[in-house]
Predict the 3D structure of the following.
Amino acid sequence: MPVRTYQINQLTEKMLSPDQDFRFMALNDLMTEIANDPHLFQSDEQSEVKVITHVLKLVEDKISEVKNQAVKCLGQLIKIIKQDNMNIIVDNLIEFTASKEEELRDIAGLALKTIVSELPTDSKIAEPACQKLVPMLLKQLQNTSTPPETMIETLSTLSILVTRFPRPLSRVQGAQPVDVLTPLTAHSRPAVRKRAVTTLAQFLPIASPDEFNRLIKNVVVPSLTTSTPLDKQRTTVQLIGAIARYSSSRFGPVLSDVLPGVLSAATKDDADLREGCMQSLEALVLRCPTEVTPYLNSIISLGNELIKYDPNYAAPDDEDEEMEDAGDDDEEDELDDPYSDDEDTSYKVRRSATKLLGAIIATRPELLVTLYRTVSPVLISRFGDREESVKLEVWSTYGLLIKQTGVYGGSPQAKTSEGGKRKRDHDGMEVEDAPSTLLKSQVPGLSKALLKQLQGKAHNNALQAGFNVLHSLLLVSPGSLASSSVPLMSLAANTLSQPSSSNLSVLQATVLSFVTLFVSTHPPSTYVSTVPTLTAKLLNAAKERHPRVTSEAFSAFSALLKAMKPLKPSPETQWVDDVYEEAVSRLRSNETDPEVRSKAEDIIADLWLTATDIVNKKEGKEWEALLKGSTRTEGAVRVVTKVAEEIDMGDSWVGSSVEWVIGLLRRSGKTGKAEAFGCLEVLLKRFTSGIPPELPSVLIPELLPLISTSDLVLLSHSLTTLTILLVQAPTVVYPIVESKVVKPVYDIAYSPLVSGSALDSLTDFFRALVEADREIATHVVPGLTMALEKSNAPDASPANISKCLSAIVKGAMGIAAGVIAEFSKAIKKASKSKEIHVVLSLLTLGEIGRYIDMSTQSEVFNNALALFTAEAEPVRAAAAFAVGNIAIGNIHQFLPIIVKQVQTSNEMRLLSLHALKEVVTHSSHAQLETVAEMLWVPLFENSDNSEETTRNVAAACLGKLTTTNPSQYLPQLQVRLDDSKPSVRATVVAAIRYTFAETDQSYDELLSPLIVQFLSLVHDPDLTVRRLSLSSLNAAARNKPNLIREHLSALMPLLYAETAQKKELIRIVEMGPWKHRVDDGLEARKTAYETMYTILDTCLERIDIHDFLGHVLNGLKDEANEVKVLCHMMLFRLAQVAPMAVSQRLDEAAPELSAAMKGAAVTKDTVKQDLERTAELQRSTLRAIAALSKINTPGTSPQFDALVEQVSRTGPWAAEFRELL
């Protein structure tokens, strides 16, 4: 007998044991075996049947623990058994559910739910299981003798099946779930009706259109009539809400038939019906945003009315004072009142109405102005609702309104404005009907109503919620609570006075965060009277053991110090000394939490910057604690840097600080060294008596190992430090630099890796070097040249050397003539110099010619121009660079020559245009104004019938020239928009793109009237013109969003049209035996999505979020990975700015996200680059899933829940996903 079979037989024998512990452990051991070996029964069907039979028998066991373990075991067995044996399990469990024993029915129902929950979605038996289960379950529901409890379990099982296996269920033969489930919505038991409503709604997405329409026409619509019994109406509105949640795409077209009936039903005086109507309307607002739009005004009015629904409390709607009194009645009055709140369910209506308004606020940013005029006053009036849960919901909803204003409310919303004068500033952002302005106007009433609820005997939950609202308000409308400063600060102090406890720490941290923000956004005069009381409470909080409370207390003190600076010694500032002592105490302790230590370090810096006279008398205790109290030095470096920048601390302190920083630089590793260098650079400039003579000899040896390309950041800092030393102490530093530093710098100067800030630091170093001793200039120039020529590095950068040489000449102008003469030799016709030396000479002459007039040495210009015909491409490119930059030195002499080359020489036209581009790019504005007319016509002539490269260079020049005289050149570009030649239109659009790249606003008024006409070429018949127009729109959205905001309603449809994949642009290219699919529209499509991403970032308040989101979701289906990655980025951003709208459509995104996580199939033709691209797509998808999971409410989006479960628990990405959360 095989070992495995023997073990299985032992387990089955234990299952028959009379000892319940043996039976339990046998089941447990079996699950362990299944987990360790999924192929447990691969070749032993007899054992498989035997095990199943015994486990099913234990489902009927008398011991609850054994039965429950048997159910779990069935959930694991269903993953590995054959289809025939699956039928055995299903048949037995269905039979058990029909048993007369209630306990057996319950455990069988649980077992069915377990197996359908555990059955893998990709299992081979998934579809057979559906084919087997669904008809049997539906038959059970049709059986009138089935107990209600069993029906509920059966409905739950069907819900799990349709959620996890929608496609297999849609192929089940003979089953009519809709016809079976519909009658159950009229069942006598409310619990059955409720469960049936949900299950029916979940089956509708896979039902046929006829079934769906029949349900709406024959069941839903007739049940909304006024004559329908209340019970049926309640069930119907629940069904409407469920359909909206699970089948919104189908519900949209018939919404107009249903929604009026829901609105009418909400007017009936029945609390349960009204609550159901509110919940259904909320679902419709969230899931059918486009179709519900015509009804929004009616829905808002209904929500405003029912948020005040309180039939058991007779008070005027707008008198919250009386409501407050009613809520504060003492206990004796309540006992005498024959009415009890326990009998009142009207609060559910008010709460549901509040949530409905919240859904509109969260998903309709375009209605913010309307909401502030209609909804905001009503919400404020309900701040004192007598039911705590409703009150907190109202506050939360108003907090959401404030947050939406922060995201969308900075500019006017013309769609919803109702007249009224507009007052624009220069950016057009501040107007009277902007949501932010309306919020400010309502703050007094808001703060008064909220303060009334927070003062007195408010619970901690209410205090937490109230301070959250106030905090959100100050983030969006800084300084708006000045009139309430005294009561607010008193409330904060009283809240902080409560006895400390772990449950109170969150509230205290929230209050302290509010205090910090309040102090930062209001003038001290508004709260100065409360400072003594407030600082005492803050000091107590700073001494708390809870790290977050202490951190927030120190933050509040920092804000207070900055607001009240300068602080001088006096009895009123005793709190400053107390804060100082507490901060030093925290810094000295090795047990201090890292976050608390960081805040204590910030306090020390703020004390020095705001209370210098007070801290100066403390004998430096803080520096001892700061610099020696911890192995982590990032905070100490930050403090020393801030203090050194602002305060004259004296040479003794500066010297000791420099010594300390040098010690940090000596540590191994790179962590924190960039910050240490930043600190050192500040300190070196703060010596009042000059840098100590002994310092360079100590510091420079520490810098030498960093002069390499292994770390460009530290290289940049090292060179900057050397430059400062040369400037501050040239006599002492120069000899050391000359002997120890210059040679290592030669060796890295030609590296192409040295770029950006590192290259800037390198050129600054050479200029400081020659200014320290001008005689070295004549040695450095040949030294750099020889270093380049001897390097023999194929990727050596002559451009870097040329920039260094130019910096040297600027620092020592006396050698300019000699340098020009020397490098001119290499570009003469008779020269036999190496290619790299010719290139270096041209680049150097160009760099120098930019600021030195070479008109007396015109042969240099002519020789460079002659090299336009050189054989080597690097020489020709360097020649164009030289010619263009030399022309800048004397633009009127040399520029006409270049223009003539553009007009007459076909061979040298492209290089001449590159030279012109150098002129246009590097010339001053004044220079360009004098020559723009000379350049305009030749540049446009080269846009006609020329290749794209030439056209792009010409367009870049035209765009730059346009900015020199917009009033003259913009109309000329406008005239050519309608040119019949695509090449001309392409040049115009490209030129406009370059004008958008300029951030200068001086010509915005001229550009604004033409913007739509320019960008309307997005729908040009020529693909290149469309792509360039999209790129121009992208540039406008990035750099001049104020110009396009008002026109987005016209531009967005054009943009969306370009996101669709066009079949006519796809072609098949045969490459030998292979066929390659080429999508000519991909670049335009990518540009369209890039533009969408930019608009999302800069014009959020002007786009229709629902429409925008729909196109993003469509982009997930695109074949191009680049488009998918862009859509992932947009989903990430949308999850932050429109979480409610996005969370409603997670199930739409789930299939495409899941497909992207699986990656492409590996074949014999797969190469490494394919795998890398796939991995990058998967990482991008993972980031999107992580961001979306943070806004997801578990249970509302089952497909997305399954995706998150799959990604987070199994597979190679599980650990990385958990890190992202």
Q: What stands out?
A: Residues 939 and 954 are 5 Å apart (CA to CA). Confidence is low (pLDDT under 50) at residues 317-340, 414-430.
